[in-house]
Amino acid sequence: MLGPAEFEDMRLDIAAAEQARLYDVAFASLNRHWSARGATSVGSVARICELVREHAADRPHSDWKAVVVEATGEAGFHVLWNGDEVASLEARA
């Protein structure tokens, strides 16, 4: 028989899996862009990745694009999209 602790563990496992899916799709789009065009700097990439994790906290998988926009914006970049792919990251003046 499952008790409250087991149900809470299951809830946390589901939430962690949802969070991991958000990271995967957000980072995949950014990584494809950086692989194809290069990144401005290692520091910028590290900062954007850190901010993606911060902005993704407790958000559903469907918010991945908003998380990328928020994270890149806070890091000083404007993201341009081509569908669901990052077309470019432009430094804000």
Estimate the global geometry from the Cα principal axes.
Answer: elongated
In spatial order, strands of the major sheet run: 1-2
Rg computed from alpha carbons, rounded to a whole number of angstroms: 16 Å
Number of DSSP strands?
2
- Stretches where pLDDT is under 50 for at least 5 consecutive residues are none
**Based on helices, strands and strand pairing, what is the structural class?**
alpha+beta
Our count of helices gives 3
Helix fraction bin? 55-70%
Approximately what portion of the residues adopt beta-strand conformation? 5-15%
Q: What separation lies between the terminal Cα atoms?
A: 60 Å
**Average pLDDT across residues?**
86
Profile the largest sheet.
2 strands, antiparallel
The sequence of SSEs as H and E is: HHHEE
